[in-house]
Design goal:
Elements lengths: L8 E8 L16 E10 L6 E9 H11 L7 E4 L4 H13 L6 H4 L4 E2 L5
Parallel strand pairs: 3-4
Antiparallel strand pairs: 1-2, 2-3, 3-5
Length: 117
């Protein structure tokens, strides 16, 4: 593996936190918030880490804000409707900016497995 490849994040897989492929997920209502697991590692490396975030609908967000009057959203991708391909596209866009020796820290709000989700 080259030094430059080790400086670029790569998506290996994306599932629910239960291991279900996103393409198999069908929300039962318009108000959903799905816990997602992304396996991310350095290009060319066998190693990877689990990162977690939520994919939540605007309808879910509105309901939660109405219920609690406020809500943090740093680990949530907010969507109009559930589209697994769009979730992957958005994640890949974010990973394109995760470069350099500290690409893991550039993932920002994502939480690695075992880091207090």
């Amino acid at each position: 593996m080259s030094y430059l490849a080790a400086m670029q994040a790569e998506l290996r897989a994306i599932t629910t936190d239960d291991g279900i492929p996103l393409s198999d997920v069908i929300p039962t209502t318009a108000e959903f918030c799905i816990h997602v697991r992304a396996l991310i590692g350095s290009v060319g490396s066998e190693d990877f880490s689990d990162y977690y975030f939520d994919v939540c609908s605007v309808a879910w967000l509105i309901k939660e804000v109405e219920k609690h009057s406020s809500l943090w959203s740093g680990r949530k991708l907010i969507v109009l409707r559930f589209d697994p391909q769009e979730v992957e596209t958005q994640l890949r866009k974010r990973l394109r900016h995760a470069t350099g020796e500290n690409w893991r820290s550039e993932l920002g709000d994502f939480v690695r497995s075992g880091e207090g989700w």
